[in-house]
Design goal:
The complex is a heterodimer of chains A (228) and B (258). Chain A is an alpha/beta fold and 228 residues long. Chain A is built from seven helices and nine strands, in the order βββαββαβαααβαβαβ. A five-stranded parallel beta sheet of chain A has the order 6-7-8-3-9, with helices on both faces. A four-stranded antiparallel beta sheet of chain A has the order 2-1-4-5, with helices on one face. In chain A, helix 3 packs across helix 4. Chain A is globular. In chain A, 37% of the residues are buried. Chain B contains ten helices and ten strands. Chain B is globular, with a radius of gyration of 18 Å. Classes of the chains: A alpha/beta (228), B alpha/beta (258). Chains A and B meet through helix 2 of A and helix 7, strand 10, helix 9 and helix 10 of B.
């Protein structure tokens, strides 16, 4: 039983305020990802890689098709679950590393990073140990931990984002260009963390433009074609 | 999945054609924040008043389940039962703090009054709890004896929130709580709200026309227009991938401003 089973997913954006223009993005997309496998979404820009990744998180909605994921309670279809249940599935099962950090301005880096694990009710000493380990491995100096990331550089914000998204050892990990604004040292740190996630059995789906990283992490490429 | 604490089906209250709130279905689960968005006149405030028992529906059903697991039919409940629930199980935060505060009694008194409403009698304990709550909402506890009319708008709003949360209600209703505040004051209030909601595990129904506020606070959204709910979903679904023409317009107009 795969961790992710996408069946005949179709997505068209309808721009009601631009004369009802229809933009077909995905047509009949089907693929599976096993536990411990890393699948990289491949294809020229405009083929819907990012859209598909967002649908695997339940952020964008599918017009038709099914997206089955293995959760603690069996398998569930993200297209059909109630939004309230989707929140729980995100909390416990699916991690998403986006390109940008979107947070409330005044919350400290430390609290931001700790939040996903605290939300699961994990003991504070374990939360702190994990946060410290991740922030250190991602080369975020301790002097920044108590500060809100609003004034950090793009690369620093990105690493806060990665630390936050990796706090929980999610069975499914979705990565949208996680190393886009990082230097070589930090790219390596992130690559190692992703490899570790895969080794512990996470099903990983990612978009990586960095050719080296792609070759290194991908067990398989899934090629998307233009739906237009 | 636990059961919803508040469950509305076909809830309606029509003042005039397309004015009010029509056939709304809504569930609120423990610990979640539900946002109701839309323009003024869309019926969102009417819906909030119906849900919180401040107004009675013409049609539909509305069931609230308290912490003891007891169900209350809010459409059929007596006035005194509703007032009792509003005092013990609900919090209601008004847009204008002056509507939710008693301006002639001290800050500490505003908080303590709610505690006395649920049976607290020990003066020292009430005062200590009021002081603790002032600190929670980032008001200097040294101002416990000051009258709220000497507070800034942001402080008054934080005091109103403390007054509503001190009794640890399971469900809090908020109508544009950041409405009359400067942007910088808003951000601070939103932080405070987010933290309290998270620490206390309360459920919140919040009405706002501000998509930024919705994005930061709400887990789920209902979009209203002409009294009806036209779109629902997780907050990020509705804001990132809006389906209805009206929602797309609403989201697009917000992005242009910010």
């Amino acid at each position: 039983m795969p961790s992710i089973d996408v069946r005949a997913v179709t997505k068209t954006f309808i721009l009601h305020n631009q004369g009802g223009v229809q933009l077909p993005v995905l047509r009949d997309v089907s693929f599976q990802v096993e536990a411990g496998e890393c699948v990289v979404l491949d294809g020229p820009s405009g083929t819907g890689k990012s859209t598909l990744l967002k649908m695997l998180y339940g952020n964008y909605r599918a017009d038709s098709g099914e997206i089955w994921v293995r959760t603690g309670e069996g398998v569930e279809d993200l297209v059909a679950v109630h939004p309230h249940r989707l929140l729980q599935i995100r909390r416990d099962t699916i991690g998403f590393v986006s390109q940008f950090l979107r947070v409330i301005p005044r919350i400290s880096t430390w609290d931001l990073v700790c939040e996903p694990l605290r939300r699961q009710g994990v003991d504070e000493s374990r939360v702190a140990a994990r946060a410290e380990a991740l922030l250190t491995r991602l080369n975020l100096p301790q002097s920044l931990w108590s500060l809100a990331p609003a004034t950090f550089s793009g690369g620093e914000q990105q690493r806060v984002n990665i630390a936050r998204s990796l706090m929980v050892e999610y069975p499914i990990l979705l990565l949208d260009e996680p190393t886009a604004s990082l230097d070589a040292v930090n790219r390596e740190a992130v690559a190692l963390l992703i490899e570790e996630a895969r080794q512990r059995g996470a099903a990983v789906v990612g978009i990586f433009h960095d050719e080296q990283l792609r070759t290194r992490l991908a067990d398989r490429l899934y090629a998307l074609e233009s739906a237009r | 999945m636990r059961d919803p604490i508040l469950s509305a089906r076909g809830l309606s209250r029509e003042y005039a054609p397309e004015q009010g709130c029509l056939a709304v279905d809504l569930d609120v689960w423990p610990g979640e924040v539900v946002g109701i968005v839309g323009e003024s006149g869309s019926g969102k405030s009417t819906l909030l008043r119906l849900l919180s028992g401040q107004e009675r529906p013409d049609a539909g059903s509305l069931i609230f389940t308290d912490r003891a697991g007891q169900s209350h039919d809010l459409r059929e409940a007596s006035e005194s039962e509703i007032r009792h629930l509003q005092r013990t199980a609900f919090g209601i935060v008004h847009q204008n703090p002056r509507d939710g505060l008693r301006l002639r009694i001290s800050a500490g008194g505003n908080i303590g009054e709610r505690l006395m409403g649920i049976g607290a009698r020990h003066y020292g304990e009430i005062r200590a709890e009021a002081s603790r709550w002032l600190a929670h909402v980032e008001i200097d506890p040294a101002r416990i004896d000051d009258l709220p009319r000497h507070f800034s708008g942001g402080m008054q709003q934080r005091l109103q929130i403390a007054r509503n949360l001190v009794t640890n209600p399971g469900l809090v209703f908020m109508d544009e709580p950041t409405g009359g505040l400067d942007v910088s004051v808003q951000a601070r209030l939103l932080d405070t709200l987010k933290r309290l909601v998270y620490d206390l595990g309360i459920s919140v129904v919040i009405v706002t026309h501000d998509m930024g506020v919705a994005r930061l606070l709400a887990d789920r959204l209902l979009v209203m227009r002409f009294g009806r709910v036209i779109e629902t979903g997780l907050t990020d679904q509705v804001l990132d991938d809006p389906q209805a023409a009206y929602t797309q317009q609403l989201v697009a107009s917000i992005l242009q401003v910010s």
